[in-house]
Amino acid sequence: MAGVFDIELHDGDTVNQDESDDDVIETREGEYDTTPNVNAILESENVERVQLSEQNVNPGQEKTGPQDFELCKILGEGGYGKVFQVRKVTGKDRGSIFAMKVLRKASIIRNQKDTAHTKAERNILEAVKHPFIVNLKYAFQTGGKLYLILEYLCGGELFTYLDREGIFLEDTACFYLSEIILALQHLHNQGIIYRDLKPENILLDGEGHVKLTDFGLCKEHIQEGTVTHTFCGTIEYMAPEILTRSGHGKAVDWWSLGALMYDMLTGMPPFTGDDRRKTIEKILRGKLTIPQYLTPDARDLIRKLLKRQVAQRLGSGPSDAEQIINHNFFKHINWQDVISRKLEPPFKPSLKSADDTSQFDEQFTATAPVDSPVESTLSESANMIFQGFTYVAPSVLDEMYTQPRVVNARSPRRGLLGSSHSGSLHNFSPRTPDSHLRPSSHFQQHRHHAMGHNSMEDTEMMDVGQLPGHV
């Protein structure tokens, strides 16, 4: 996908090889001025002067900023910033509840990899629209911070439900896995690897359906046969080829799906140790032990997803998710009903209102929400890194500026050419920005070993825990 941060340069001396005389305009001498006096034209009464303002420059784009949102609760906090529950106080969606992710620019630009990941997540959030992926509503920035306004998912993390239940029944796991599979399939079709599938990054909406969040470790532009070497993710769910840095592709997400399925059905990931080194050792060489109380279909799917040899792993082929969708574990699933959100969720969040935060950690929600001031402002050149960050979702703009504007502009040539045209009609339609970008994931750690920053040259961003909710 083309991001706004990619600049394509064109040769200004390009010659049109398909020239012809078909569109030559025949004129008679004296019908036009060969040496026009520009100053005289500008001073002419026929020139209309217009003061530039936000009202007449890019009129189809809604302007948003921190002042348009009221802070309600803190949903999470970490090294790069905070996630707030906010209420929109302006515009057509006034009163709507969102999640606002705030990132400090100064913290991000210290590391080139973090900057790249921030841009990538922003790109993906704008480009990817799917029933089981969190939806980006707005993006804007100030001198020192980046703001992402996401849909508020009041159901909280799947982690919370799994932690409370201990294990899921196979029918329950089947429901969540089916929605997750379709979300991952959509990402893969867009050339995106997710790379951080775990219960903390799976949120539930008010009805109990799945939404994938936190695209900070995603990799774009991965097509069939393409590999990348980034060492990132949460160890318990990492595929062996990431750990060995031998190059990995989309199949890493299917390993993580297998680890997640095992976690759902047994209460813990398949390979765990007392520390990171021992956990990695088990992932690379440990024996996979699958409890006998699981059905044969469940055991078979887990075994085929957790194949260390990538070529043998289910979903590693060109058909990607279709291999998994067709597995016997999902024999009772109507996949059209899944994508249509017609299946009944096993857990429906118990909520009092649309702004209910009861499914989030009280450690954060009980704290007074304050968007702390920026300690330092970036230079103009440093701020250019984040050019193109602003975004307004098309759904927000659907009903804005739908009527054409008539501008009675007088032509400066009228006096010179004797033209009878008295004005012109201009249709102004909303223009969706072609921008993209992304914020990095660096937040609260739950039960898993998450990777910290590594200064090695071939290392990109390491996950050191996730912001609960919307990171």
Automatic annotation (TrEMBL):
Residues 411-456 are annotated as: Disordered. Gene3D superfamilies: Phosphorylase Kinase, domain 1, Transferase(Phosphotransferase) domain 1. Residues 69-330 form the Protein kinase domain. Its EC number is 2.7.11.1. One of its GO terms (molecular function) is protein serine/threonine kinase activity. Pfam families: Pkinase (PF00069), Pkinase_C (PF00433). This is Ribosomal protein S6 kinase. It comes from Cephus cinctus (Wheat stem sawfly). The lineage of its organism: Eukaryota, Metazoa, Ecdysozoa, Arthropoda, Hexapoda.
